[in-house]
Predict the structure.
Amino acid sequence: MKLQKLIIENIASIEKACIDFEYGPLGEDSIFLICGPTGAGKSTLLDAVCLALYNTTPRLKQAANERYLDENDSFSGTGEVSIDDSRMLMRRDSVSAQV
């Protein structure tokens, strides 16, 4: 499998981003490195790829099954949302997200 394009909207701290893996430096080589300082978005980028392909992320699956109060009841309809729910990756104060 080869990634072609990744479009991210409202995932974690990324409001909007488009990464084209077929053109420019990413398209010139078959391998590339994802690097940067703490908080640069490396894990968020990998979460976005996993969400696009599988609608879940390994990082969420490994999280403890904690539950948080959904004060607006906007996620679950039950008043609680689980930490391993992929909607927990949605950018704060956004009403929709997609990858």
Q: What stands out?
A: The first strand starts at residue 5 and ends at 11.
